[in-house]
Amino acid sequence: MFARLGNELIKLETELENVYISFLENSPQMGRFCFNKVEMNKKEKIENKAKEILEEKGFFLIDFVWRGSEQRPVLELFMDNARGITTDDCYEVSRELEKFIDENELLRQYRLDVSSPGVDKPLVFAEQFPKHVGRNFEIEYTDDETEKHTEAKLIEAKGDNFVFETTGKGKEKIEINFNNIKKAKVLISF
């Protein structure tokens, strides 16, 4: 009985897929559907090339944002490394990525912004932490299955383990493995 029911469900699923495909093929929205598919391929090509360029230069991709209109998209590439980013680094990456986009005629009109993530973005790679030793952080992490939130100063970076000293009364040292950090953001001090 269950085998027969399973076969009937498979037939029904196949029929539904055929109806959906037929709907798409005859829909006035089909052009929009295809355009989105093409745009996704362009985005993937550009993002993959960006990763390749960054890796060759010793950087890593923090975020790649594709926004704006279809006619004039805005591409935002945020990169980082262990030592920090200079404007010359951003310029070099921008020129190489623009050359790739233009030579492959992926986009006609676009704006490409290449920058470091800035202090307002959380750190996402362990390699980002060492350059911030001595700075205060807002950290969300797990400790023995318990989620914790604290403000602390990063006092030591040892591979994937980071030693923080809590701020305020009763200063305490906490060692946190990178895999246990849910969110870490450098606090700006004036």
Descriptors for this entry?
36% helix; 2 domains; 3 helices; 8 strands; SH3 type barrels; single chain; 3-stranded mixed sheet; Alpha-Beta Plaits; alpha+beta; 190 residues; 5-stranded antiparallel sheet
Question: What does the model show?
Answer:
This protein is of the alpha+beta class and 190 residues long. Helices cover 36% and strands 32% of the residues. The protein contains three helices and eight strands. The longest helix has 27 residues, at 30-56. It starts with a helix and ends with a strand. The relative contact order is 0.10.
The CA-CA distance between the termini, in Å, is 73 Å
What is the helix tally? 3
Strand content: 25-35%
Question: What's the CATH topology label of the largest domain?
Answer: Alpha-Beta Plaits
Instruction: Report the mean per-residue pLDDT as an integer.
Output: 84
User: Would you count the extended β strands for me?
Assistant: 8
Low-confidence stretches: 16-25, 27-35
For this structure, the quaternary state is single chain
Superfamily (CATH H level) name of the largest domain: Cation efflux protein, cytoplasmic domain
Q: How much helix, percentage-wise, in residues?
A: 25-40%
Tally of distinct domains: 2
What sequence of helices (H) and strands (E) makes up the elements? HHEEHEEEEEE
The structure class reads alpha+beta
Q: Just give the CATH class of the largest domain.
A: Alpha Beta
If classified by CATH, what would the architecture of the largest domain be?
Answer: 2-Layer Sandwich
